[in-house]
Amino acid sequence: MLDFPRWKVVLITLVALFGVVSAAPNFLSDEQLNSLPDFLPKKQLTLGLDLQGGVHLLMEVDLTEVRQEKLISKRGDIRDALRAASIPQRSAIRGDNIVINLTKPEQADQALDVLDDTVEMLGGSALTGGGVPDIEYLKQENGAIIVSLTEDGLIKRGNDVITQSIEVLRRRIDGMGTTEPNIQKQGEGRILIQVPGFDDPQKLKNIIGKTAKLSFQLVNSAMGSQDRVPPGYERLPMAESERVPGLPDSLVVSKRKILTGENLKEAGLGYDQDNRPVVSFRFDNFGGKRFADVTRKNVNRRFAIILDGEIISAPNIQSPILGGSGIITGNFTVESASELGLLLSAGALPARLTVVEERTVGPDLGSDNIEAGKIAAIIGLLAVMVYIVLSYGMFGMVANFALIINISLIFGLLSTLGATLTMPGVAGIVLTIGMAVDANVLIFERVREEFRKGKKALSALDTGYDKAFSTIIDANVTTFIAALILFQFGTGPIKGFAVTLAIGVATSMFTAVSFSRMIISAWAVRKRPTVLKI
Amino acid sequence: MLLKLVPENTFIKFINFRKFAYVFSLMMIVAAFGLYFSKGLNFGIDFEGGIMVEIGTEEVADIGKIRSTLSELDLGDVKVQEFGDPKDVLIRLEYQEGMTVDQVVEKVREVLPDAIEGEISYRRTETVGSTVSEELISDGIMAVILAIGAVLIYIWLRFEWQFGMGAVIALVHDVILTIGMFSLTGLEFNLSTIAAILTIVGYSLNDTVVVYDRIRENLKKFRKKPMPELLNLSINDTLSRTVMTSLTTLIALASLFFLGGEGIHGFSAAMIWGIFVGTYSSIFIAAPILLWVELRRDEPDTSPEAGVDVIPPQKGS
Which residues cross the membrane (chain B) (predicted)? Predict the structure, then answer.
């Protein structure tokens, strides 16, 4: 106990110093921080949404839609491949499968060979192969072939969709110019979006809720609103804002897409000659050429600009559009035009997203929470410290010193790790203040007991520390286990609580077993006490 | 003069109260179950799904008027309550079939100025869909079960399996009583409650382990002491520490409860209750339970007062 090698003293002092120095930025103002020399840490704790206000959204990717789209495109591929191999057939999508009926059942084996070539290996590389097949197929006894999507392939596809969606969302939210958003995948098929310091969830949802699939398709103006739609065409509704009384609510357009949003290079707010807000855009090289080509051939026809299945504009082609750029007119406000511009330049989401959980905290509540948390922590800390000194006298002061180092270490580690402090996290710290002294209490009680039993002062200290050690380990490991499980299962604020609790357990063990022990042994070596006032 | 809440040499015969404690705990558990099945829990939207809006008003809000104004919207069950402060109101709405959450919140925002004078600040809105709330429930239950399981394994490894059983029985006891307390008080049961329960699990265990640790030590030291006496001795040895730590933790929690704001009221209430229950259970439940099972002492002890029968190994068995 009394024997403390120098390296240990240095190490313990360094750790304690690290705590104080790395925690310090949290208690300084920004100006004070800026005036500090560069070698000192300046990282402050990130405040959670509940402490600084902000929006938390959990979005779910509509995977059934992804599955349907995949089925449709796969059916097209298979039909083309079979046609190329001169195998006549009829196919249909039934539930989750594509059912192929061959006109000549004797061609079945040949058809299966062709199908074999349409299998895409997802996730594999061109060089090494590998990956998972996207479809599997089965010949039935009646000669029909059932093609279905593989589970692995769907999972892979779902993951790709999520990754792409996160990309697109990040571009969109960054485009709004707010503070660092946190966008991440959560579980299977979910995306978590947290935007701190932003209290308009409606605006945020406008930005992220739209799929923003844009396409340019030619209008068949010969078709009236009651006519039957011929094959190769589809009837699409006008967007609500574009409906004009007396004019049809829908138009018949060619299914062939001249261009899609993927061919856009940039888009943003612009103004037309009457100074009304419009969305101006520029195509990429391919898009520009193709647009010029199509408009040259279709002068005096109308084309429709379609966003998420609704026609937002259907202008007449007065002359070929050659410059590779254009504008979308409509009933836009400055805000809605810049919003659409942002959506178009960030690209379309590969699937529809729906909000399944939403939490918005206003900035007032956030600052109220911080204030309350601070007061509770300070009062709690002072009360505990007074009680400890009353109970253990000089030893209590050492314990209190250790407690302060402990709290510095918690703040320091949280800041260094870049952890987020939430209200439950504050609760975790306050709770640690109460529980952190436990290790010291265990030691002091043991020392008290040994001394009372008649051991000499020094030997009582020695035995006290020794015997309390294994109890401290057992008692803390169990709390640590609870914290780990909380971390694993908790979401958001609860995770924050688990982190502070776990760090608190670790640092309180360090401060009790090493730091306070070092101070007390230094005192014991110098004073050689015969009586312990404990 | 130092403050000592627990006198230096106590010898309270805790173990002799065990029958009372068992009956008492059993009654409490039955009461907790009864409350749970009759009154149920006041689930927050985390677990029930739905929409919650917290608003701040300039003047003291008229809860009745807000409630009647909102119920005219025909949105099903509307709960309106004060939230810690008469100028702070919490509104709970059901998840509306066929309406997006925004449409619901928009409707609420439209009519609220009829019921409230002056400016209304929207402090917080939360919505949780039903699939998410179901997952949160199953995750929460899973977390508590896993925590208890992990603890059982840890104690089994560090002590004997009998200790593990005792600790887990005490833990389950604490969790049930905490849920009962939530049912009785009608405090909102939400995600932070799960966090509180897990922390109680950790804390109660902490207490139990300290007592068990001393029992293990005393088992080695006093080979011939009868078990009840040995258990009493161990509890008394650690009593001063148990009281001290419970008090420091309670002090910190009381500060959190009274000053920490409405947001963590439920959390700190649960924790305060948990400290009492956890401390009680480690003394009156976890320790006496060890009497039910035979604890292995390090060496065979055949003395009659040891209270342990040692059967000599049979040949051929």
Answer: 20-38, 136-157, 164-185, 191-212, 233-259, 271-293
